[in-house]
Design a protein that fits this description.
It contains 5 helices and no strands. With 119 residues, it is an all-alpha fold. Helix 1 packs across helix 3. The chain starts with a helix and ends with a helix.
Length: 119
């Protein structure tokens, strides 16, 4: 993420950049479509290529929005970790293990974790 952000900054310094945030969103949409097309071909190398392009575009979107991509991902990781631990705790309390709990129950635990997170 850091290298992608630095490459985007370097290109931007010489004027090789998008003019507006919306143009970067368009690029993210384009790369998402290309990833879906690669997935449809079941080509691992194409999927890897397109996923990399999408990640690079998302890092550039973060840069355009003035967000540190690494810090944003760290925050998302921390939120996921906290929520998933809540899901595990609820599932084990209800059924003794997480594997025997239905997907819909896991989703409900997840939503509850999100609700209580902000409180």
């Amino acid at each position: 993420l850091l290298r992608a952000q630095r490459l985007g900054q370097k290109a931007s310094k010489v004027g090789f950049d998008w003019n507006a945030d919306e143009a970067v969103f368009d690029k993210v949409d384009e790369e998402t479509l290309e990833l879906r097309e690669a997935i449809a071909t079941s080509s691992d190398s194409a999927i890897t290529h397109e996923l990399g392009d999408l990640l690079f575009s998302l890092v550039n979107l973060a840069r355009h929005l003035g967000v540190d991509a690494d810090a944003a991902l760290q925050g998302a990781n921390d939120r996921f970790d906290s929520r998933f631990r809540h899901v595990e705790h609820c599932a084990i309390a209800a059924a003794g293990d997480i594997e025997s709990v239905s997907h819909s129950a896991l989703e409900a635990y997840w939503e509850k974790a999100k609700e209580t997170e902000g409180k």
